[in-house]
From TrEMBL, chain A:
One of its GO terms (biological process) is L-alanine transport. It comes from Oryzomonas japonica. This is ABC transporter ATP-binding protein. It comes from the Bacteria. One of its GO terms (cellular component) is plasma membrane. Residues 2-249 form the ABC transporter domain.
């Protein structure tokens, strides 16, 4: 599904990522973990086209997607969420999700601006589809609220709803549990399960070990820009090198 | 003044009549101010739409106003089209000019820093103006009014049918604009781009396409403004400079909102300018606009109404 091979990124003289390779299977949930500064977010930003890599390649379903801009990736079925939620703050919750359905809109600009009947019908279809995603993430009641006024936890759910509206094949989440309380984290774990249930591949960068061990099939551990280990949660928990990296002494 | 025909009691007469005369005059100036203000509002919205989509102040905006008027004239006189056909043709050609401008001047830029972009729009403006001068010469032209020039009298002041056309078309355009941005998916996508470009591209919105769209909409708005005002003020290759700057002024008063704030900004500017020109001296007409512009930039750079954020597009 997602094939990362030999990704290296050098910032000035600092090697942030050094020859990182791994493969993620269709429909799996994979966690990318590692101590602070391990290069997890840099890796995410390279996969999702926000940073450029120094060398290496990324393939999605066999297709080389290295260096493609985010909007192309979204159309190819790859979406992501951010650690610091990125929403359209002045729009309503529902509108935020409707914008996610933008790529599914077929009626052209002219039809829209002339308010043709079919574009109005489409607008209604998009509204209904957006409501479906709000229901899926459990924030239907907030549909008409301004996105900027949401609590952090609800904003996170909205960001996920909006990403799902793009109907992705794979969703990458950058620290989805950051800033959430334990109740919200529990809800998030269930939501990730539901997303996987729809056949969508999930990749997350996460610090919350409990969440990672709970929801992930496989875990990739990064340390100092290198891949340290890869395996099932159980294997990782028993890996001496990983324990050493986390406890700070090799 | 009729007072001149009464030499004996001239002074007395004038003094007595002065108060009602001035009220009528104020009404008269306000009416014409509102219609020029509506024009400034349309141009100002054009500025705001591009600014919100790209962060650029497009100083070529005025040239699309000029193109609207000059192209209408071209289609009317040289191709002998009726008005109802000439106007859409002129708007379409202006929109095409907007597309070319974005494609050839804005998009290829390697390092699109705001200052580079602003300089490019100024260069584009000079280029378009120069081409218009070569094509159509330096003469000032008039477009016939849309429906005659029989004045209509309202409460002692008179307005022309064209004033009504201007106000009605402006209201219609603003309504369509509002509908587009709030009730169509493309409009929502454009708003999304202006709020958070990174998030917009993440959900698959092609930001560059939205930038192009903003240039199309702005050139259409600008050319329409230029067309509806031409029967009143005449048109020439260089009308874009002043109209563009006045529209910019309206957008600044409105805090770069593409909604009602800029409309109100345009109307305030139009009325103040018209009253100033009528009651103080017509020589100060343009100065008034720029004094307002400077005052707003010094005192309230976020615009007269402050919270422009919620309706920025």
């Amino acid at each position: 599904m997602l094939e990362v091979s030999g990704i290296t990124r050098i910032f000035g003289g600092v090697t942030a990522l050094d020859d990182v390779s791994f493969t993620i299977g269709q429909g799996s949930v994979t966690g990318v973990i590692g101590p602070n500064g391990a290069g997890k977010t840099t890796l995410f930003n390279i996969i999702t086209g926000i940073y450029n890599r120094t060398s290496g390649s990324v393939k999605l379903g066999g297709k080389d997607i290295t260096g493609l801009p985010p909007e192309r990736l979204a159309r190819l079925g790859m979406v992501r969420t951010f650690q610091n939620i990125e929403l359209f703050g002045a729009m309503t919750v529902l509108e935020n999700v409707m914008v996610g359905l933008h790529t599914k809109s077929s009626s052209g600009l002219l039809a829209c601006s002339l308010m043709m009947p079919w574009s109005i019908a489409e607008e209604r279809r998009i509204r209904e589809a957006a409501m479906h995603w709000l229901e899926f993430t459990g924030i239907t009641g907030l549909a008409d609220d301004t996105a900027g006024n949401l609590s952090f936890g609800k904003g996170r759910l909205l960001e996920i709803a909006r990403a799902l509206a793009v109907e992705p094949r794979i969703i990458l989440m950058d620290e989805p549990a950051a800033g959430l309380n334990s109740q919200e984290t529990l809800g998030l774990a269930q939501l990730i399960g539901k997303i996987r249930g729809m056949g969508i591949t999930v990749v997350l960068v996460e610090h919350d070990m409990e969440l990672v061990m709970d929801v992930c099939d496989r875990i990739v551990v990064l340390n100092l820009g290198k891949k340290l280990a890869e395996g099932t949660p159980r294997e990782i928990q028993e890996n001496a090198e990983v324990i050493a990296a986390y406890l700070g002494d090799g | 003044m009729k007072g001149n025909s009464l030499p004996m009691k001239g002074r007395e007469f004038l003094r007595k009549k002065r108060t009602p005369m001035q009220l009528e005059q104020i009404l008269q100036y306000s009416f014409s101010g509102l219609s020029t203000g509506a024009i400034y509002a349309l141009i100002g919205i054009g500025f705001s739409i591009i600014f919100n989509a790209t962060g650029i102040i497009n100083f070529a905006q005025g040239e699309f106003v000029m193109l609207g008027g000059m192209l209408t004239l071209f289609f009317l006189e040289l191709l002998q089209l009726p008005l109802w056909a000439a106007v859409p043709c002129a708007v379409a050609v202006s929109a095409l000019a907007g597309i070319l401008f974005e494609r050839l001047a804005i998009r290829p830029l390697r390092q699109p820093t705001p200052i580079n972009l602003v300089i490019i729009t100024i260069a584009g403006s000079i280029l378009i103006r120069g081409l218009a001068m070569l094509l159509w010469g330096k003469d000032t032209h008039a477009i016939p009014p849309f429906s005659g020039d029989e004045p209509i009298s309202i409460a002692g002041a008179t307005i022309l049918p064209q004033h009504i056309w201007i106000l009605a078309i402006t209201v219609l355009i603003i309504a369509v604009n509002k509908f587009f941005f709030y009730h169509t998916i493309s409009g929502k996508a454009m708003r999304a781009c202006s709020y958070n470009r990174r998030a917009a591209s993440l959900v698959g919105i092609d930001v560059r396409r939205m930038v192009l769209l903003s240039f199309i909409i702005s050139s259409v708005l600008g050319s329409l403004a230029g067309i509806i005002v031409a029967p009143l003020t005449m048109t020439a290759y260089d009308v874009g400079i002043m109209l563009g700057l006045k529209g910019f002024c309206a957008a600044i008063i409105g805090g770069m909102s593409s909604g009602m704030a800029t409309v109100v900004g345009g109307l305030i500017l139009g009325v103040l300018e018209s009253l100033g020109a009528g009651l103080i001296s017509s020589g100060y007409k343009d100065a008034i606009a720029f004094i307002i512009l400077l005052l707003i930039l010094f005192i309230r750079p976020q615009g007269l109404f402050g919270k422009a954020e919620s309706e920025r597009v």
